[in-house]
Design goal:
423 residues, 17 helices, globular, Amino acid/polyamine transporter I, transmembrane, L-valine transmembrane transporter activity, 2 domains, mainly alpha, L-isoleucine transmembrane transporter activity, cell membrane
């Protein structure tokens, strides 16, 4: 296992997580966090960096597919979980890429509607999905380095030229605000989905590599990719915080990123960033729809018809949701993420811990508890929090929208204690 192999795998992982849509989240977090930017950055990196990288480490241990993450709960639960994750992927993060493209690259130049952009956008996505063109794979190799270079320049100019004069935080709780915003990256879900792709790629390159060699390679590459994500996200958060007094407090996420780019690097670099982000968004949408169609095709015994129908549905959903602005899609995604993200997190953690602590019974108990205690957070996110407060007020951390954490931890401990007593 050479250093070159580790570096290549780390960059591949970094590129998979470094979604263009994610770039609009950290600057606004920092913008609203003011002098508590470091606390917000900590929370954001827990859910947007640490948990996804742990998901990759879990894949290094399992060396299977997405199905293997939840099969200890039950095979049926795992299938249902996979369907839900792919449905969410084509209904929310995929359309969001169209909205980001419209707001960053189309709207500043042409006076067209979100609907028109999303129709053209997903018509092109469909063409690339059904033809499985390798053009985007080739282009994609240059997108991440290009975006990364511009972002590092923006961060560098901001950190080394601006006074460290921060405003007051707009958040009631900076840490949990960062954690919950990290949900919007979808990266924990992404880790569960794309980790299997990395395993397949490694197997194709070196079929003779042992389990331990592949495990070590993925682990080292995962931590290296995580370090890169941590530095970029933290840099964007502190950059946003430094510009708190330069823009209206109600500025949108995309407008803020464009505005910061314009102030630090000028109009040319801003246009270049908009183009690169739009292309990266497009490759992400193609990847999501293709991956979903491949999954459904596999469930229907390799049916090409199932692949085509799924691609059509994915693109129609993209048009339906892509006609709304980024802020609206993020708001719609929140209730869904408040439910599915805790389940994904506990599945990742249960697959990371040593096997002796992760018996099927423990899986079932912990996942069941997480689902139960995620319901109040889900109901709260759709406006029913006050109606159920008399029932849920006793749940620890409920007011921070992470009421599932301590119950899941308690059941994990109790499940392992009962297992040991039963011996």
């Amino acid at each position: 296992m050479s250093r070159k192999s580790i570096a290549i795998t780390a960059f591949a992982l970094f590129s998979l997580f470094f979604g263009a849509g994610n770039l609009i989240l950290p600057p606004q977090l920092g913008f609203k966090s003011g002098d508590l930017w470091w606390l917000v950055a900590l929370g954001f990196c827990i859910s947007a960096v640490l948990i996804p990288i742990l998901g990759i480490l879990a894949h290094a241990k399992l060396q299977g597919t997405m199905f293997d993450f939840a099969k200890k709960v039950s095979p049926l639960f795992s299938v249902v979980y996979c369907y839900i994750v792919y449905a969410i992927s084509i209904a929310l993060p995929s359309p969001r890429t169209a909205s980001v493209t419209h707001e960053m690259a189309i709207q500043p130049i042409w006076d067209s509607s979100y609907l028109f952009t999303s129709i053209v956008y997903f018509a092109l996505v469909y063409i690339f999905v059904v033809n499985r063109s390798k053009v985007l794979d080739i282009v994609g190799k240059f997108l991440t380095p290009g975006i990364l270079l511009i972002l590092l320049l923006i961060i560098g100019v901001s950190v080394f030229t601006l006074d460290f004069d921060f405003g007051i935080s707009q958040f009631e709780n900076s840490l949990t605000s960062g954690v919950l915003e990290g949900y919007q990256t979808f990266d924990a879900i992404g880790a569960v989905v794309v980790g299997g792709v990395i395993i397949i790629s490694i197997n194709l390159k070196d079929k003779s590599a042992s389990y331990e060699v592949k495990k070590s390679l993925i682990r080292k590459a995962g931590w290296l990719a995580g370090l890169g994500l941590f530095l970029v996200y933290t840099g964007l958060i502190i950059t946003g915080a430094l510009f708190q007094n330069s823009f209206d407090i109600e500025i949108s996420r995309t407008a803020l990123l464009s505005g910061i780019s314009l102030k630090t690097l000028g109009s040319t670099a801003n246009v270049f960033l908009s183009i690169l982000v739009s292309l990266a968004c497009f490759t992400t949408a193609v990847g999501i729809v293709t991956g979903t169609a491949d999954f459904i095709k596999g469930r229907f015994n390799g049916s090409q018809l199932a692949y085509t129908i799924t691609a059509i549905i994915g693109c129609l959903l993209g048009i339906l949701m892509g006609q709304f602005n980024v802020g609206y899609i993020i708001a719609v995604a929140l209730p869904v993420l408040m439910f599915i993200y805790p389940i994904t997190i506990v599945l990742i953690l249960l697959n990371v811990v040593p096997e002796k602590f992760a018996a099927p019974k423990v899986f079932r108990w912990v996942v069941g508890t997480t689902i139960l205690f995620s319901i109040p957070d889900f109901l709260g996110s759709i406006g029913y929090g006050d109606a159920i407060v008399s029932v849920t007020s006793w749940i620890p951390l409920r007011e921070y929208h992470i009421g599932w954490v301590l119950p899941a931890l308690a059941v994990f401990v109790l499940g392992n204690l009962s297992k040991q007593k039963g011996r």
